[in-house]
Specification:
55% helix; 3-stranded parallel β-sheet; helicase; mainly alpha; SNF2_N
Length: 207
């Protein structure tokens, strides 16, 4: 009765069934692709890359201004709240809160007004010259925009903070640049119109 313990035949049979099933599935997928091919346009990455110019990435570093360095020192020493309460007008009676040190340091690098506005009693931004003078990134941006737009380039500016786009929009409009803004508050149809028209010199985008 050795055949009762001989499983090789059953194993081979099972393996054969699995192989047949895989073959059948492959044929079904191939047939489905053949049916759908006339209705689908599949663009491979390598095909698209041939249509686009090669990307050139240049990283520029902006030095912080003394104004920003002062804010950074207060942030690290956890004294910025007291400093702002002493130096800005809190006429609106609004007291901001500075939490999460790394986020606040990033905001200071983007523009110190992101920190100062929480304590400032004014609804208005400072004059453009002062706004640019406070921030190393804005000083660098100001120089780049003048050179790029003089050469008829279009510029895309991205920020994850919409408040930075608020500050930037004020700066760009006051400086006489043509600007278009697209963020989460812009409806899809309006986005499509703006992108299709592409008449602005500068596009501001936020995720």
């Amino acid at each position: 009765m050795t055949h009762l313990f001989d499983l090789s035949g059953k194993s081979n049979n099972k393996a054969g069934k699995e192989e047949l099933e895989e073959t059948r599935q492959s044929r079904v997928v191939a047939k489905l692709h053949a049916i759908l091919r006339p209705f689908l346009l599949r663009r491979m990455k390598e095909d698209v890359e041939q249509m686009l110019p090669r990307k050139k990435e240049i990283i520029l570093y902006a030095t912080m201004t003394e104004y920003q360095k002062n804010f950074q020192e207060h942030l690290v020493n956890k004294t910025l709240e007291n400093h702002l309460l002493e130096t800005v007008d809190t006429g609106r009676g609004f007291k901001g809160r500075l939490q999460n040190l790394m986020v606040q340091l990033r905001k200071n690098c983007a523009h110190p007004d992101l920190l100062e506005s929480a304590y400032d009693g004014s609804y208005f931004y400072p004059p453009v010259e002062q706004l640019v003078g406070q921030c190393g990134k804005f000083q660098l941006l100001d120089k780049l925009l003048k050179k790029l737009l003089a050469r008829k380039h279009k510029v895309l500016i991205f920020s994850q903070w919409t408040k930075i786009l608020d500050i930037m929009h004020y700066y760009l409009e006051e400086s006489g640049f043509e600007v278009c803004r697209i963020d989460g508050n812009v409806k899809l149809e309006e986005r499509r119109k703006q992108v299709k028209a592409a008449t602005a010199q500068i596009f501001e985008v936020s995720c």
